[in-house]
């Protein structure tokens, strides 16, 4: 079965940047092709902007900032309500675009990418309505003001959601935004910009500059007119962005990689916890920063857990993401596929046992960047597959002896973004979660909350997105003594 071709849409053939409230050609006129990872065919084009375009975008944002930040918050929120409405009207197209440029299966594109993005924007609007924009502290009046020009640099794995997680907070705060989306997935950002244009956001408040990270991203991080840099991506590039921005004393928020653990305590419901953990590892073909890529189980439960995990992974439908019923689409690119299969091959060479999947191509899928959902075990705590982010559909299962060891293993990587604890009751799971050095922990399958703070400990980054916390990343605080 070869992947079904998603029809190419006129909305995906783009060449312009959006600066100062209008579309304009880039200084160089160059464009790049966007690949559909399921078909390996070009599915659209995008601007290949450069440093001069970044410069123009920062100028437009700086010019727009004073009046945008001076608006009463409820007037800014009314503008953002219009943006949300314009996005909702494009919901189906956004889903189709996510399928085409990420390779996410339809259901995942709809629920995890687009609807979650809209939920996050709604939660920002609610939080901004409740925020203490001014408060009295003794003889002081404390004011919260937009930080200035915010450069937002985003990755390819959830291209709409990641952008909304940043610009929702930034625009609600009164900052003016320059967005540099990921090279591999610029089309969702173009559709978002169409919605912003339709919603009559004041010119210059939002600017879109798609282009290479080391050119446009770095120009933004270094630009003296940029006050805040909000970056989501790899730890390696995040460190570079922070170093470049440091010279200008900018505020820097980093949402980086993860190696999160799902911890099954003795007495947890294996039949619920194991399949849910496999799903969380495989969601979006494992290209999720919060993916639970390690499953920690009591040694006595190891065989049962491996059996459940292998059966669940083996039953996942891998294939054309545009076909309803597909669980896993391809990974985003040929390079990503090589990276992921390289991790699997090296783990196997180092003695890991593959209990489901493996590095070879899934049967019947000769084209597309497909990887089989893979479960490995027999891995040492220091093994590469346990320590490093794979960003593909790979789960490592590790046994532990005693809860203290489980906590040590869960905390035993440089990362700390997410995780889960499954216990016989909520209190025992919460007690363990309190000891995990990580930003989000789901207790016994607790659901994602778009109003709760999101971000990492350690090398998973700093700063928080979503809800009130995501707005505060883009606020300055001023005290007037009366
Ligand atoms: P990446 O770091 O390669 O790129 C991220 C963004 O940075 C892209 O827009 C890229 O163009 C830009 N960039 C690259 N070099 C740059 C430079 N020198 N200066 C400025 N910008 C530059 O990451 P990716 O491959 O797009 O995404 C995958 C990574 O993102 C994974 O490690 C994943 O864990 C992480 N991620 C983290 C979160 C989170 O919230 N913590 C969310 C999603 C993805």
Features of this protein?
482 residues; alpha/beta; Aldehyde Dehydrogenase, Chain A, domain 1; Aldehyde Dehydrogenase, Chain A, domain 2; 2 domains; seven-stranded mixed β-sheet; six-stranded mixed β-sheet; disordered N terminus; binds nicotinamide-adenine-dinucleotide
Written description of the protein model:
This protein is α/β, with parallel strands linked by helices and 482 residues long. The chain folds into 2 domains: 10-256 and 460-481, Aldehyde Dehydrogenase, Chain A, domain 1, CATH 3.40.605; 261-443, Aldehyde Dehydrogenase, Chain A, domain 2 (3-Layer(aba) Sandwich), CATH 3.40.309. The chain has 15 helices and 22 strands. A 7-stranded mixed sheet has the order 14-15-16-13-12-18-19, with helices on both faces. Strands 9-8-7-10-11-21 form a 6-stranded mixed sheet, with helices on both faces. A hairpin with a 6-residue loop joins strand 3 (31-35) and strand 4. Helix 7 (213-222) packs parallel to helix 8. Residues 1-5 have low confidence and may be disordered. It binds nicotinamide-adenine-dinucleotide. GO terms for molecular function: oxidoreductase activity, acting on the aldehyde or oxo group of donors, NAD or NADP as acceptor.
